[in-house]
Amino acid sequence: MARSFQKLNEEKVFKDPVHRYIHVRDRLIWDLIGTPEFQRLRRIRQLGTTFLTFHGAEHSRFGHSLGVYEIARRVIDIFKYRNHWDDSETMIALCAALLHDVGHGPFSHSFEKVFGTNHEEYTQKIILGDTEIHRLLEEQGEGFAGKVADVIGKTYPNRLVVSLISSQIDADRMDYLLRDAYFTGVSYGHFDMERIWRVMRTQDDQIVFKLSGMHAVEDYIMSRYQMYWQVYFHPVTRSAEVILTQILHRAKVLFHEGFRFKYAPFPLIKIFKGEMALKDYLKLDESVILYFFQAWQEEKDPILSDLCCRFMNRRLFKYVEFTPSLIESKDQLAGAFRDAGIDPDYYLEVDSSSNSPYDLYRPGEEGERQPIQLLMPDGTLHELSQESDVVGSITGMRRTDVKLYYPKDRVFELSEHASCREQIQKILGI
Amino acid sequence: MARSFQKLNEEKVFKDPVHRYIHVRDRLIWDLIGTPEFQRLRRIRQLGTTFLTFHGAEHSRFGHSLGVYEIARRVIDIFKYRNHWDDSETMIALCAALLHDVGHGPFSHSFEKVFGTNHEEYTQKIILGDTEIHRLLEEQGEGFAGKVADVIGKTYPNRLVVSLISSQIDADRMDYLLRDAYFTGVSYGHFDMERIWRVMRTQDDQIVFKLSGMHAVEDYIMSRYQMYWQVYFHPVTRSAEVILTQILHRAKVLFHEGFRFKYAPFPLIKIFKGEMALKDYLKLDESVILYFFQAWQEEKDPILSDLCCRFMNRRLFKYVEFTPSLIESKDQLAGAFRDAGIDPDYYLEVDSSSNSPYDLYRPGEEGERQPIQLLMPDGTLHELSQESDVVGSITGMRRTDVKLYYPKDRVFELSEHASCREQIQKILGI
Amino acid sequence: MARSFQKLNEEKVFKDPVHRYIHVRDRLIWDLIGTPEFQRLRRIRQLGTTFLTFHGAEHSRFGHSLGVYEIARRVIDIFKYRNHWDDSETMIALCAALLHDVGHGPFSHSFEKVFGTNHEEYTQKIILGDTEIHRLLEEQGEGFAGKVADVIGKTYPNRLVVSLISSQIDADRMDYLLRDAYFTGVSYGHFDMERIWRVMRTQDDQIVFKLSGMHAVEDYIMSRYQMYWQVYFHPVTRSAEVILTQILHRAKVLFHEGFRFKYAPFPLIKIFKGEMALKDYLKLDESVILYFFQAWQEEKDPILSDLCCRFMNRRLFKYVEFTPSLIESKDQLAGAFRDAGIDPDYYLEVDSSSNSPYDLYRPGEEGERQPIQLLMPDGTLHELSQESDVVGSITGMRRTDVKLYYPKDRVFELSEHASCREQIQKILGI
Amino acid sequence: MARSFQKLNEEKVFKDPVHRYIHVRDRLIWDLIGTPEFQRLRRIRQLGTTFLTFHGAEHSRFGHSLGVYEIARRVIDIFKYRNHWDDSETMIALCAALLHDVGHGPFSHSFEKVFGTNHEEYTQKIILGDTEIHRLLEEQGEGFAGKVADVIGKTYPNRLVVSLISSQIDADRMDYLLRDAYFTGVSYGHFDMERIWRVMRTQDDQIVFKLSGMHAVEDYIMSRYQMYWQVYFHPVTRSAEVILTQILHRAKVLFHEGFRFKYAPFPLIKIFKGEMALKDYLKLDESVILYFFQAWQEEKDPILSDLCCRFMNRRLFKYVEFTPSLIESKDQLAGAFRDAGIDPDYYLEVDSSSNSPYDLYRPGEEGERQPIQLLMPDGTLHELSQESDVVGSITGMRRTDVKLYYPKDRVFELSEHASCREQIQKILGI
């Protein structure tokens, strides 16, 4: 690919609290950032409902996307310095880094659960479909957009480019761990990114790490583990997520039942009908969702109104561990809820989180990620858990946390259903 | 006031990136944070449109309000340790610190400009009116809400309590300088808050500073100055603010002209009519505004649609210095705009920022703030600029920055009005 | 003990990069810091030879001692707030925290190895012997010094006071991990100290940790593990330590052989003879050692002179892993060294480091430390590794690193002993 | 100069708390760092006696020298990226940056005052004389050492290279402000170095700054001002400096009087005689000085012994402002001291510090530094104080602080000379 990309007359920068500055030197990158599809990421929080647990976590996917781009840019610079990089891949890699999350919608997790959408599919559609991003990419040469999409979709032939964006230690994860730690304010999530960059080597089309940097990699693995349990799987965040899911679910049910909304959710109707087009999807952001949640507090349906009121005012569900004895009593509990006039379909929800600090075969969230390889002084590769005592001892370990969420306040208010209340309290042990 | 306030069984904390932890030990504080009126601050950004310049500045007034409370709490602890504090004022001061910004609406600056509302009035109304906050405060004793409102309104008789919340170096400013520096990522805005706390003394019902801490105070004054010019008055932020103001203005004009909105702005109609009640005001947040701005991109009115499109996609106005020669040519410029079919009422806007690093008589944004007094070793008070060479030399200095904002892209597209374009370019020097 | 301790008229502070400020409110603490015995800690580096690996690690035991005092002070404040603390123990605990390392000499590790001294014994002697520290302590009441010494010696009856200063998570370790990370600049060593403080509870005379803080404790354990391997056991530091030990050893041997030093080491002569008194010990600091090492570069003994030259100019030994095959060849290697004219007693040294990230029975450096107990919601105590998957999987794991140190430069210069050189190179695999 | 410099096979790094990593890619730089003359900087503190005021300030000139090199390296990289740099000057500039302080001796300030030496002269001698550094430099080509010396001596023809190392905003000052702030722990001294780098331009052989970066430069000027008064001129540090000077002065006097030292200061004798050779100078470091100060506590001369005891145990002189009325009474005061048996030549010392935050003509410590030039959008240069209100208002302002130091403890102990004591107390107002 002998294409040459236009440079900006003068480097542009974004002030960034995590990387100090994001540097942009290519016109294409600058123009992609300016598209409506990319600007929309400013209106989608990086961590969904986490801001209700950690009030600092109000940062959006916009800053994260810039951060992933910046890390990719710096790592490629190091690879180029060592002559380990094919420069004709640079712009493809940078675009993929910048755009890897562009298909995310508002509160993706809940949204996808209720409507069966998939943000990765939308990322592909945005890059390949009728968008400004697509037009800008194709101006670089026919098929360029497809290559960028392939990198993100992990089907691109150059595995090195793919692994820069998605692997056990990729630009995406490095940015989000540091960024989410910064904005939440937690002391986990820090690791020596520059040292990891310096021990990165490329071999057989994959990124490997010099043995001498093993401790920095260990530290990254442990940071990731702590961030999962301390931040990403925090039970209060999951409670907010449960309510959010139920609201979307209830609205969809009501719509199909022909409910007359006081505030009809125009932007959501097509998704209720399962016929959402790309241009409709691109109009969705967290403002739309929050606007309707706010408005729906006044709807006549008591479930929709109550759940919206809970979400907007952070009157969340409480939780208990979903122990084996509770599993046995779940039907009985649902019955007691129903008798007391609380619909268990909306007010009793089991939520499960599961994560492994490091797994040889299923090492991350997604099954297909490759294990981390260390480059030994003799040039051979050893899988991390063989060399690291700490990682070795936790490899394959899987921790699961299952909780039952319910509205404790409603249970305590059940004065007219005292026996139901007592039964519920007994089962839940509250 | 012999009232005793209920303590929480166990201290609660919020993880905060600026102060590490916010500590809550009083039930009243905890309950106030849980009210819908306070939770609403999560949906109002601390720095309005600044996130379009510094992408990290997505933090809300919620975190800032907790931060002001926390600083007040810690300073009061120090005062108590030195027996300089009347403990019966503690809860009044803490409530005032927590609630001082509760009346802010979405994008207050523009909003107040167009609709003539005032966030300080709304703070008073929320504390004194029909709200959960009011009920919680009055449960502490009749008149308690009034006292809290008086502290915020600066009419409370104990001047020490007032100056803790609003003075040259108050809990409000200390928090926002540190917080805004943290989230934008700029290196200005840092100062040694703990040292300032340690040299704070109370004398004649005001907070004064030991001479030995003068340098820390100087540093704070300079930090504040830099934050004003580098962050708060950033011309790109002001450009976004100009557009936002024009959108609200246009929507109001259209409403009064009987324009048939495709997306009728229900939550704003009362404010268009000038008859907004407190409960309507409390429904306003940035989601509402952004929802309509997004939707209005499809309205038939080309001005409204274009401005909304600009705001949502960050296609902002450019600017030139509003020099004396430009002042003279302004009418001519407006004429050329009109001839070219660009309405100068919406597309040509002068914006002015003005600030003084330290002023003896009008030392801050508001005229009435008192000068900073240093406590000399002999017990007398000297005004800061008398002792500090640096502050002395900049006292009374006022810097004003006036810029003219306009849509550069539109001007360059004026192919059918080439002569207008040339005239405009000549006047603007572009 | 109804003794009342004199407060300072005004709190004094030390600016500290780790804890921001060290606060001193008691005259006794202030006076202890001012004693010659305590000031001497300014001339003894916290991390011995580590500054030759991490150039930032030039900090002394003086700052660390203040830091341990400050942590103890803050933790006691929290315990007092919760009524978990007997205030009559406060000054004993603070003095013990401040003085726990006062017996350290220059480069303690090597020094103790060669001369058989023990810094813990000297700490006891300084507190109980003829010193200013002793006089100040005894002014507080007869037997007060003894109590302070007992806390440091872990024989004090109140186990809570002991465990504040020496346990798995004590003020000593919390300070040194944070401080050493700060000065070396490594990103390991950070953990959420304030959270750990907040989940600390006292039960059965020991410090336990609420289950909800388990992750912060895990993070501390992992930080400690990383600091051991990345900083404390760094092979370059150990190389410097090996040379230092050999210098002291050589000087001692030469002294006993009646060698005529050009620069006679007056301050060390008594220790060579094994008859060092407390007042002689207190004259030793790193300046003394470095002064003689510098001077001894000019001594006629080639071993002493060469080793000193190496230490002063950082021409350290290189190392190889001490593998089983190398163990077998060690005698052969020593023979080849001897044949080549390099004395293996001084130029071939095996050094071993060993550490376990967490051990139930021998959890720290010293055998007697108690395991970490978590306080469960039902009030029972569970040992950490039972609850923490991560800690559970690494409990009892022990990692040992043995290296062989030798002067690579000398080996390569062996032109006149080519066959020795080849043999050595073959054995060492270099 | 078509010389090509040897690269290292693999980049080497030093972990640095200020710049994260110091990167070394050239064999020459690596070898220079390894010379005895450069390693000696590890034994000379960056801030002399400041560690007695800020206990964290124990860092040496070694780390600072690496830091200056690293800043120069990064700035040159930026200049190269913009084609503003003649690459044949790179190694000269890097060597000059690394070696600019290599002539510093122990406690230079006092040392030079008493012995009339000059560290800048010694820097020249070390680069040009019989040293390992000289040999390494000359291996790069004859005359190379001379060029490096010329850059440091400011006589090198390429002014751009000179101004990188010594100007108002040079690599030296940028490093020391950030480094000294880091190690002392003060919150002053921070500024946005990366932004300053980015707005640096080269014009007419000097470094200028784009107008858009003016605020970052302002912030740097103010940081520097605060560091001077809060750290570098701290009165406690100056008190230690006064005592140190008096010790050296006393030892010299005693030597010339034929005093029989118990601990004869071999390494200092030549300097007492004024005939110190370079190789003798290179043996001096702080260990030597501190070793003798420690030992001299036992000398029979009461002045020497007392002053050494004060320095080692931090029993410093107190101070009062040297007011005009005190100036008048100085002789009287000296008389009272003499009558009371306290030698005013050693125990009564006036010390003066003077600094200007920014000066057009004498802008720094040294008279010859050039003013800071801003590069305007039209390509012209404007001197900083013309454009910056803040800097403009403080330009030329000079602040001087004169204090009188004396041993307060001795004065209060004057029980046998009650009338002297009263007279002294009256004059000093204590």
UniProtKB/TrEMBL annotation, chains A, B, C, D:
Domain HD: start-end pairs: 61-177
Domain of life: Bacteria
InterPro entries, per the entry: dGTPase-like, HD/PDEase_dom, HD_assoc_2, HD_domain
CDD domains, A to Z: HDc
One Pfam family in the UniProt entry: HD_assoc_2
SUPFAM superfamilies: HD-domain/PDEase-like
Name assigned to this protein: HD domain-containing protein
